[in-house]
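Design job #97: recover the sequence.
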């Protein structure tokens, strides 16, 4: 008995019927493994091997009985024994959640087909400092979280995981808009399961939204976390959260083993872009601009030093005018200045043209003051020139 379940799923995703294939049956069941097994079951349907397809789904549900999309497919397969079906979600009482299931089916099929180019580097990760053992890039458009490890300052692909994000999409701007923010963030805390309700699953990792750039742009809100799913739910639809990034509990536990509070960067974008030669040239130009800024500061040439700051620069409530006056007064009282910079991390900002976040350790000493701090700057390229638009303690 032929059914069109697999065709319905493939059409939902825009995939040709022979495009998805995977066999991860001997692997540890991460979200990628689970969806590969699901697609393997659906491919058995295309070969009219319904019993095999049902056995494969049953095996999948033994691993995780709360995988609701797999339960829906199982219901369709059981129904197919009694009558032909030609649509996805023919099981009773599925109508009220069909859009969610269709979205999850589409995303999971695309994830199986469109595995990331593991030899390429995301354009967002220009440089990792030695303390950042891993970095995360979330692509909300593909419902995917990518994990990279730090190899001598350069990112190397480790894994990717299915995620759910904001119900209303990305680009969060105000409290309660149910959107996921786009930007460069950091893990701020580790909240264990014992301190949370079951809604957050096996744990949660709050991010520092709103960051300095968000506040500069007037964005507000709070409580953007990486977290898990309720105990009776394996995964949620691609757009189901109030703005958080949600993983299966198993995947969150895997990720939690490498997350560093206050250190691990989490870049959230709505389109994954990859580094190229032009991107690398831009990074080299920025590093030259940073060194020139440092040298001009150390030279006590205040006028040259201030040319590195944009006219819309701000920090801690002070605009460029107030900042420049304060710097002129401070430098007038110095006989000499030394500035050393180390432990750089550099990340390009999603959805912002030519905006880069730079973090480094700053070792400052002068004739009357010494100070060491972790500094964060936002540099923007305008009229072919890099300038600082924000500066403060990281």
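Job complete. Output follows.
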């Amino acid at each position: 008995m032929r059914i069109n379940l697999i065709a319905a799923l493939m059409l939902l995703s825009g995939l040709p019927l022979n495009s998805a294939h995977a066999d991860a049956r001997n692997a540890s069941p991460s979200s990628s493994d689970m969806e590969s097994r699901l697609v393997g079951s659906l491919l058995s349907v295309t070969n009219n091997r319904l019993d095999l397809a049902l056995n494969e789904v049953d095996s999948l549900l033994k691993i995780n009985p709360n995988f609701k999309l797999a339960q829906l497919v199982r219901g369709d397969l059981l129904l197919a024994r009694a009558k032909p079906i030609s649509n996805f979600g023919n099981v009773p009482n599925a109508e009220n959640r069909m859009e969610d299931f269709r979205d999850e089916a589409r995303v999971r099929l695309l994830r199986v087909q469109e595995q990331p180019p593991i030899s390429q580097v995301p354009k967002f990760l220009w440089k990792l400092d030695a303390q950042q053992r891993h970095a995360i890039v979330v692509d909300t458009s593909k419902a995917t979280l990518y994990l990279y490890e730090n190899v001598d300052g350069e990112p190397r692909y480790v894994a990717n995981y299915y995620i759910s994000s904001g119900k209303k999409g990305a680009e969060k701007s105000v409290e309660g808009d149910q959107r996921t923010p786009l930007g460069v963030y950091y893990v701020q805390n580790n909240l264990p399961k014992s301190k949370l309700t079951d809604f957050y699953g096996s744990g949660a990792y709050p991010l520092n939204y709103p960051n300095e750039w968000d506040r500069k742009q007037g964005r507000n809100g709070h409580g953007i976390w990486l977290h898990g799913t309720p105990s009776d739910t394996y995964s949620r639809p691609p757009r189901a959260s109030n703005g958080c990034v949600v993983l299966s509990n198993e995947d969150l536990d895997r990720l939690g083993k490498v997350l560093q509070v206050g250190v691990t960067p989490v870049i959230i974008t709505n389109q994954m872009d990859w580094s190229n030669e032009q991107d690398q040239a831009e990074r080299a130009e920025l590093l030259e601009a940073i060194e020139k800024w440092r040298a001009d500061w150390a030279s006590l040439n205040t006028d040259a030093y201030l040319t590195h700051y944009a006219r819309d620069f701000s920090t801690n409530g002070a605009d460029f005018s107030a900042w420049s006056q304060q710097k002129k007064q401070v430098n007038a009282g110095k006989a000499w200045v030394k500035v050393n910079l180390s432990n750089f991390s550099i990340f390009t900002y999603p959805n912002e043209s030519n905006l880069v976040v730079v973090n480094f350790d700053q070792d400052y000493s002068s004739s009357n003051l010494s100070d060491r701090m972790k500094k964060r700057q936002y540099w923007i390229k305008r009229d072919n020139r890099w300038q600082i638009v924000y500066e403060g303690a990281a």
